[in-house]
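**Protein record**
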Amino acid sequence: MNKIFQFGQKIDQYEFKVINERDARASAGIMFLFGIITLFSFIMTKNLFWANLFTITFIIEFIIRVFVNPIYAPYMILGSIIVSNQEPDWVEASPKKFAWILGVILGFIMSYFILYDIMTPARLITCLVCLVLLYMESVFGICLGCIIYKKLNVKLYKCPGGVCEMTQNKTSNKNKYIILVGFLVLFYGVFYSLKTYKYHNTTSSNLTQEQIDEMEFDKEEDE
């Protein structure tokens, strides 16, 4: 029973329980993909069926992760299968648990919206927050919940991405910011040149004019 209801694994290499970060990132990427698909489905059809279905699976996923065991959560299982040929990247379990508790809270908020069929900006914002958190973890390996946990608890050993051990190199980042600003200026110059000299008379503007002419023609016929 204890082996079923537990959070994290105990391995000889570490004195604390760990989670495979590769499994977590893969599952986050899968959920982000499904979340984006259901969001666009709602935008195109104005039907909440697929969005509600995904939200329910999201809630179930994090409830199992936090209150049962992450290895039995469906998205974690699918993610672990996809990255099964990769060497595990073990990270401390406690900050992950804190981050996934935040996922449970967001899930409960979304379940309230589903239960009472409420469609408000708050629901959309909650959905976008979930997608941002999933995107940050899957693409950049940044667990925002783990970073918050680090601020609240100093007794940490091995966080995802090494955020507990590493200090940011501000000098190196400053040079990167300068280079990025330079490229942004360059890209804006390309954008402005294309818009001004090559696409100043686009097809879309012609279509708009045609639509205007058609509307005026229809109005004259009605008269």
